[in-house]
Amino acid sequence: MDKKDIKAYIKDTSTPVKFIKGVGEARAKQLAKIGINTVMDLFEYFPRDYIHRKIEPAIFELNPGDSIAMTTMISWVNEKSTKNGKYMLNVGVSDGHSTLICTWFNYPKDYSQKFKPGNLLWVSGTLSEYNGQLQLMHPEIEFVNEEEESDFWKKREYLPVYPLTGNLTQKFFRRIIYNAFEEYVDKIEENLPEFVLAKYGFLPRKIALQKMHFSLHPEELDEIHKRFVYEEFFYSQLLWARHKHYHMEEIKGIRFENKRQLTAQLYHKLPFKLTNAQIRVINEIFADMTSDKQMSRLLQGDVGSGKTIVTLFAMLLAVENGYQAALMAPTEILADQHYHNITRLLEGLPVKVALLKGGTYKGKEQTKTDIREGNADIIIGTHALIQREISFDKLGFVAIDEQHRFGVQQRAALARKHKHPDLLYLSATPIPRSLSLTVYGDLEVSIIDELPPNRIPVTTLIRSSQKIDLVYKEVAKELEKGRQVYIVCPLIEESDKVDLLDAQRMHHYISTKIFPQYSCILIHGKMSSKEKEDIMRRFKDGEIKILVSTTVIEVGLDIPNATVMIVEHAERFGLAQLHQLRGRVGRGGQQAYCYLIEHMPATNIARERLATLASTTDGFLIAEKDLELRGPGEIFGTEQSGLPHFKFANLFSDQPILKLARKDAFQIIAQDPELINPQNSLIKDIYFRQYAEKEKLILY
User: Fold this and answer.
1) Is the confidence at residue 317, as pLDDT, over 80?
2) Are the beta carbons of 445 and 575 closer than 8 angstroms?
3) Are residues 610 and 465 in the same domain?
4) For 473, how many CA atoms within 13 A lie in the half-sphere containing its CB?
5) d(CA 51, CA 297)
6) Number of domains making up the chain
7) b vs e for 331-361, b when ≥16 Cβ sit within 10 Å of the residue's Cβ?
8) Which of 274, 470, 532, 641 has the fewest CB atoms within 10 Å, i.e. the most exposed one?
């Protein structure tokens, strides 16, 4: 079958992009790197900006810090070399009245030849100021009046600008967009039913897609874009609505009885008083467990808020009803920590606690036998709990700690170990409230939003690297009191590519020059699990006083004696990550300190991140700010958490649309769960085409 026959055979929007006129195999590989594999992928790859050919900005009204995108005229071009041997290109651009300067260092050799005075140039970037002159450093540019522009685009007042990488050019991309629409526009199918289009005044999909690329009025595109946001949210919420309908309503769980036997004994022997938030959350969990539906609940709580004690009450409710309870942790160190804490809290109660880890060790076979024969009431372990040879006698409750660190299949494996145990997912990474509907659309959410009274907020201080000696003087005072210190670096070892402090050099410097009198050890992600766990145990035992590390210590270990966290190159870390690092200290009732060390001039966003962290210890406020500044991509691993990948939607700014889509989706499923109503036939077709496999993976 030749190329022509193949095109005729599969000519629809799922056609590989290589068959579009002007693409071919080589270009298709480049397009694949930006997620474009099919014709529809190309249609849905929207411009991030639009060039207006008309010169209309008033440069004199602009200020340093403004982000701009505008068309100007090239006035002059100047090349020179700097004192340190770098080549610098300055290009003056004007609106006819005022001028600003575009500057590049170490630019390609032929770059300066492309700038011709009198030609129109589109520039985009953030303005700075140098010697009283407005300046754009390394702006994004496009030559607006190039001769080789195709006839179609030459006539357009507005030109789309696409987010491209590598050797892909705007002219090439505009050409293939035009070719694709010319050939495949009639193959574009609608994916929202008429009643939804009418309800919100959405344009048909075919017209909306064309306008996103070819509009003569870019100001209308924000409104048009909303239909694409809605459709993404709508179908993802159908998934949660169907799951909630079938799983939460039809699958019966265990109806536990609140016997107040073991739970009451624990309550009366606790060496501390439960917070109001802990009591509220325990009541929410007990209400689920004493109903006949299977519990699926997410327990969110900031570092140190007391999630473990809440979980223990839930486990005891299962045990006093004759069932086993399991707690799965992502690392052996966390599993050990839970085992020792829970064993200590249950001392004197008739409850058998077992610990199951990976690998081979003495007593493991007996532990597996105890689990199988019901001689272990509470089982704490790592992923070893989900191995095929592990069977439970009567598993009634499962808690999964740091649940976002397990893949969906791993979480499912433990949940399926017995007949519909109640499920509690724990997260110490506060999830923005605005995300919970999307990431955990089928879960009830409990939030411990109050810290125990003995927790003193960590004092967070932003310091320049030039004042690090003053920081070390403060740290020395803590070490003299017998306290312990973390120092975190962004890299393991020195790199030629980036000028950042690495943990290896930092360890050598601290242990030989700054604090040679204290034991100082290096830990990083390239070490074996055994090496890391050995170091962390020695640190926990107080043998090691200073731990120099990468972010391998971000989550988990509880070292009450650690009172100082130093984060080098803090401007390079995400807000949620910094919050987790800070959460490693201040766990023992003493005043603790987190020093955020800036090495480079921070961007506005980095400065805002650090200022946010210094001003609050509320993990949920921090998570919301992190989402606002960075988007959800780095807050959760998409594959791990089940967070959908959205092409169009912004989970922070598009919350109003999410709420509409969620309400519509849940209403439709409540009335027609199988989507057999004729008016829902289009929804059914699109949904099962896109989400059939994802539905199978949902495990709660």
Assistant:
1) yes
2) no
3) yes
4) 4
5) 49
6) 3
7) bbbbbbbbbeebeebbeebebebbbbbeeee
8) 470
User: In the predicted model, is pLDDT for residue 132 greater than 60?
Assistant: yes
Interaxial angle between packed helices 619-630 and 575-582, expressed in degrees from 0 to 180 and rounded to the nearest 10: 150
pLDDT at 191: 94
- Find the range with the poorest average confidence among 469-483, 640-654, 674-688: 640-654
* pLDDT tens profile 447-475: 888 877 777 889 999 998 888 999 999 99
pLDDT band at 498 (very low <50, low <70, confident <90, very high): low
Q: How far is CA 306 from CA 198, 208, 311, 427, 642, in A?
A: 49, 50, 9, 12, 26
Q: Compute how many other C-beta atoms are within 10 angstroms of the C-beta atom of residue 329.
A: 26
Q: Rg for the chain (alpha carbons), in Å? A: 30
Total length of the chain: 700
Whether 317 and 422 map to the same domain: the answer is yes
Which long-range contacts link 590-593 to residues 24+ away (Cβ below 8 Å)? 590/456, 590/483, 590/563, 591/456, 591/459, 591/563, 592/456, 592/458, 592/459, 592/562, 592/563, 592/564, 592/565, 593/458, 593/459, 593/460, 593/461, 593/474, 593/478, 593/563, 593/564, 593/565
Distance linking the first and last C-alpha atoms of the chain: 47
Residues 498 and 580 in one domain: yes
**Residue 389: partners with Cβ closer than 8 Å, 6 or more residues away:** 368
> What percentage of the chain carries pLDDT values higher than 70?
85
The torsion defined by the Cα of 609, 612, 616 and 621, in degrees rounded to 10, comes to -80
Task: Give the whole-angstrom CA distance, residue 142 versus residue 121.
Answer: 6
The whole domain housing 483 covers: 459-616
- Nearest by Cα to 500 from 440, 568, 422: 568
User: Is residue 421 within 8 Å of 254, Cβ to Cβ?
Assistant: yes
Query: Do 504 and 606 fall into the same domain?
Result: yes
Q: Are 104 and 89 in contact (CB under 8 A)?
A: yes
SS (H, E, C) 549-562: ECHHHCCCCCCCCE
Q: Which DSSP symbol is given to 282?
A: H
Residues 347 and 482 in one domain: no
598: phi then psi, degrees, rounded to nearest 5: -90, 130
Residues 279 and 415 in one domain: yes
Instruction: Please give the single-letter amino acid code of residue 639.
Output: E
> Taking a C-beta distance cutoff of 8 angstroms, is the pair 393, 320 a contact?
no
Pair type for strands 158-161 and 49-52 = antiparallel
Q: What's the CATH code of the domain at 463?
A: 3.40.50.300
Q: Where are the alpha helices (DSSP H) in 128-275?
A: 151-154, 170-184, 194-200, 205-214, 221-243, 249-250, 262-269
> Which residues make Cβ contacts (< 8 Å) with residue 584, sequence separation at least 6?
486, 553, 554, 557, 559, 562, 565
Could you tell me what percent of the chain has a pLDDT over 90? 42
The domain boundary, picked from 583, 598, 616, lies at 616
